[in-house]
Amino acid sequence: MEAALLFPPPWAPWAPPYSIALLAAQAKARGHRINVYDLNIDMYRHVSEEEQIYWNDAYVNKWDSEEAVATMFEKHGNYIRKYAKRVASSRNAIIGISVSSASSLFAMEVARLIKHYDPGKYIVFGGPDCFRAEEFIGILQKSVADAICTGEGDVAWGELLDMFARAPEAIESVKGYVFRKGQDFVDTGDPDVIKDLDSLELPDYSFFKLKKYTIGGRACTMTSRGCINKCAYCSESPNFKFYRTRSAENIVSELRMLVDTFRSKKNPIPFVNFSDSLINGNIRVLEDLCERIIDSGLDIRWGGMALLRKEMTPQLLKLMKKAGFVEVMWGLESGSQRVLDLMQKKRFSIALAEEIISNAFDLGIDQYVNFIVGFPGETESMFLETAGFVVRHAHKFQKIGLPIMEIRRNSKVYDCPDDFSIQDPTAQLDWVTNDGVNTFALRKERRDYLSLLVESRLFDQGRY
What we know:
- Keywords: Iron, Iron-sulfur, Metal-binding, S-adenosyl-L-methionine.
- Its cofactor is [4Fe-4S] cluster.
- The protein has about 475 residues and is of the alpha/beta class.
- It has two domains: about 1-185, Rossmann fold (3-Layer(aba) Sandwich), CATH 3.40.50; about 215-460, tm_1862 like domain (pyruvate-formate lyase- activating enzyme, Alpha-Beta Horseshoe), CATH 3.80.30.
- It has 15 helices and 16 strands.
- Helix 13 packs parallel to helix 15 (about 440-455).
């Protein structure tokens, strides 16, 4: 059957969306004809240069506002309506739309337009904002979507298309979705967790016009799902159930494909962004990957997020650098050992973190880091320990993020607020401790102070 995948803004305009390339490949392998609409890059190319700043990290959260989305539709309504009409007039029986917290409001309006032009189109939302720990069923309640996928959609998407082609009246039996049924909803649970990631088809980039993207020779991949840590502030581990990784052989086969696809005379050495929660969850696979890249002569540059752990020795860092590893985002989050203990961060100490960061700096690896400001239990003296860490090591980082502590659903802080002396865990950003000391105003003040220390190295996420 014929179906479509639509990717709304905002998202990074520098490379095709990996998730859509992966979903398209799974459906294509099942014999379905897939059409891809990257509305994100099409909108980016449509707006003026002045408006393109809204795709930058410092502005991306502006999209999470009904007023901002309304303004975008006022200025570019004709273009968006024509786009929606083109999607609606196609032969696509099902249209899958990927949504994140920043893109969901815009996506809902586009879905409404598609339904306006063709009420018979079956619209399914998927992506992180549809997870049970995120917006979940609220997506259905606020939109015209017919269903949402509640977890990893690689297999569930193909199964939905199979059923729709074979017996559309039985579509509500497909596992992994919440379906709209009149005024009610039918919840079929979460999709089965894919244990063997090597069994997935490699992403298919034939659906994209690569010249549209802003940085040539740049691609994304994922080598694993989940995280081996269970930090108190994070929902990554519970959302993805358990940690899984692809084999080094499978990853290299994709890297070869990416080099062939993204290499050009202008960009002879592609850069691959590993979008995993962590690239070093399995050290054996990481070492095997590096050795295979070196032995094969594969000429790439790559980077990703990583844990600070004792296995990140100078020898391993040198091996990674030889294999083309050029940048890393460390999962540090605080410069205070006492705060790390409160966060339940394992596997490293501040002393070990300083050693690894210094070794990577000496090797010329570009480094990035976040410091979460105002974790519950962080005292003034603990905060000053982080400030001291920043003063000692800021020069070793390209950019430093300073997110204020937010309470995420499905995290330990959210599920066990009494353990962290939180009054109301549903107050995502404006939470207060039971003693009334740790408030948003205090956290903002501390962030402003760290911003002065970081100066031009600040990675501005535009949220505060």
